[in-house]
Structure formats: C-alpha cells, structure tokens
Amino acid sequence: MADGTTVVVRRAGQVAELMLDRPAARNALNTVMAEEIASACAELAEDRSVRAVVVASSSPKAFCVGADLKERSGFSDADLLRQRQVFRAAFGGVRALPMPVVAAVHGYALGGGFELALSCDLIVADETAVLGLPEVRVGLVPGGGGTQLLSRRVGLARASDLIFTGRQVRIDEAERLGLVDRRVPAGQALPGAHQLADEIAANSPVGLRNAKRALTYGADLPVAAGLEVEDSAWHATAFSGDRREGIAAFTEKRAPRWPGH
C-alpha cells in the first residue's frame, strides 16, 4: 500500500497497520494528515484480505495530541469549515472500516487523538497513556465523535464529567472508567495491539465483518430491532464458505483455511 507524508500503512499478514507519522508534532492532526487517514481507510475498506487493522503512532511521546492549533491559527471561518469536512471524513473513515480496528495508545491521546482511538473498536493502552477531551478549554466542543462515542463507552455522566472539565486522565483512572479495553506495560502498546489483532484475524473474516456490523448497527436500537439486525448478520454468515470451512475444520481437527466469502 502507498504511504503518505503523515500516514504510513503496512501489512503484517492479515493485519494492516495504519501508523500516524508526524512525530515532530506529536501527530497533531492537520489537514494533510486527515486527508491521508481518510484515503488510507477507504483503501483498507476495499481490501478483503485484511482481517483486522491496528491504528498506531510513530511518535515516542504521543498517540496524537489532537488538532493542529498552529495550523488553525491562520484560518478564516471558511478555512475552518473546509477543514471540518476533511476531519469528518477521517474520523468517519476509521469508524466505517468493516473489519475490527484496534488502537495502540501510548503517551498523549487528547482531543482528536482520543477521538481517533474512540473511533476504533478496541483500545490497547500502555502505562504512559494520558487521555482527554480538552476542547471546551479552547472554546470548542469535541467534533470527531467524542460526545457520542465516549458517552456510549462509559455512560452519559462519566462522559459529561470528562468533557465538561476537559481534564486529562491517566492510565489507572482510564482503566477504572473503562476508557481503555486492555492495559499493557509501558512500551508495549503496539505489540499488545498487534497480539490482539492477530488473535482476531485468526477467525472467520466473514464472521468478523458481520459481527461488527451487528454490533455497530444494533447497539442503539431497542432489543427487538437489534435482534433483527443480528438475524440479518447470521443469515449473511451461516450460508457462507467460511461457515462450511469452519465446520469442516472442527470435524477434521485442523486449523481452518477461511475462504473469506
């Protein structure tokens, strides 16, 4: 896959790694990076050989510190509106990936950086992680999905506390609040995320995509409606080549060779 100037995409077997690569700025999210995230996600979404994605950072001190306010300092209102559409495409691109996505978080994940992690399905964070949505401290509100994704992850009251105060949360509290899904030692966020992604990728790609679809679209529906979403996902999986291979592999006591269709 082609690399951009601020985003690098690499393949490791059936797992793709989307690396934020603007280390001098601690991956402050500017217009170019947002464009490249959206483009990389569009390419990954069409690649049926990718079973899981890891979103990570090349910066030794941060996952992503949020929007590049230096770039914005010279913006007109029209410039800000134009960038808004690019940013929405970037965050939306991560959320729309049809395969499971794991964030590997170390150091600062603030503002849009935390929202990028929240846009993933699972968050692996190491002991150095510092999370927060400080937008109200600079006259903004979270705009990359933070108000919606954080409240769904930890509940309305806890999300309100974090968003209204704009405070930063370190790993002990982040783990207690449920802001992260797996905690690993310092320096182990990326290998920890890859270990989880590899475990996921060993499973049926048809099953994974349909399970994610059912989780995503059913989560906010009444139970009866959500069960209809699940039933649709079941039908899309049960008559697939993956289901037939899964049964054959179980019967023959061997590892499955998923056809992925």
UniProtKB/TrEMBL annotation:
One of its GO terms (biological process) is fatty acid beta-oxidation. PANTHER family: (7AS)-7A-METHYL-1,5-DIOXO-2,3,5,6,7,7A-HEXAHYDRO-1H-INDENE-CARBOXYL-COA HYDROLASE, ENOYL-COA HYDRATASE-RELATED. This is enoyl-CoA hydratase. Keywords: Lipid metabolism, Lyase. Gene3D superfamilies: 2-enoyl-CoA Hydratase, Chain A, domain 1, Lyase 2-enoyl-coa Hydratase, Chain A, domain 2. It comes from Micromonospora viridifaciens. Signal peptide: none annotated. The keyword Ribonucleoprotein does not apply. CDD domains: crotonase-like (cd06558). Its EC number is 4.2.1.17. It catalyses: a 4-saturated-(3S)-3-hydroxyacyl-CoA = a (3E)-enoyl-CoA + H2O; a (3S)-3-hydroxyacyl-CoA = a (2E)-enoyl-CoA + H2O. InterPro entries: ClpP/crotonase-like_dom_sf (IPR029045), Enoyl-CoA_hyd/isom_CS (IPR018376), Enoyl-CoA_hydra/iso (IPR001753), Enoyl-CoA_hydra_C (IPR014748). GO terms for molecular function: enoyl-CoA hydratase activity. Pfam families: ECH_1 (PF00378). PROSITE patterns: ENOYL_COA_HYDRATASE. Belongs to the enoyl-CoA hydratase/isomerase family.
